[in-house]
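Today's session is about reading a structure prediction critically. Students often jump straight to the picture, but the first step is always the sequence itself: look for stretches that repeat, for charged clusters, for runs of hydrophobic residues. Only then move on to the predicted structure, which in these notes is written as discrete structure tokens rather than atom positions. Here is the chain we will use throughout the hour.
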Amino acid sequence: MSRVAISSALALFIAACASTASPPPETPETRCQRICKPESGSPCQGQSDPSCTSSCLARLSGKSDTCASCLHAQSGWKGTTCSCDDAFGGFGSASCETCHWLGAGKSCSGAVGNSCSVAQGCEGLVIAPIGDPSCASTCGETPIVDAGTE
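Below is the predicted structure for this chain, in token form.
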């Protein structure tokens, strides 16, 4: 085998090993910085809250990784967008899509009819409370119950 072939094989082996390495785990600071920055395309893009990172870190202080991950999934900038196709040009749309944004995630569904009837915009920053019903058991807390749902 030639020296060039051995060097090429070694370089490919090193590249393959490097590409399978997992990224370092997120720190509480990097998690909080991520949820404090609105996603591109969200209705909150360009918004900021100078107290977000410190509020987020205070909320997670002393919590397990599982609890922190759950709270992060329920935290971030919240808002709604609606967009319609241009199927009929100036005469209207065939379908529309409404998306509800929270942090790095969004869920979308077809809007009823061919227009946007939902309020669009940024609702603001949400830092999930420790007793958030989705995370309470994971965090070892009693779920917060909304007084209006009893």
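Discussion point for the tutorial: Residues 3-20 form the longest helix (18 residues).
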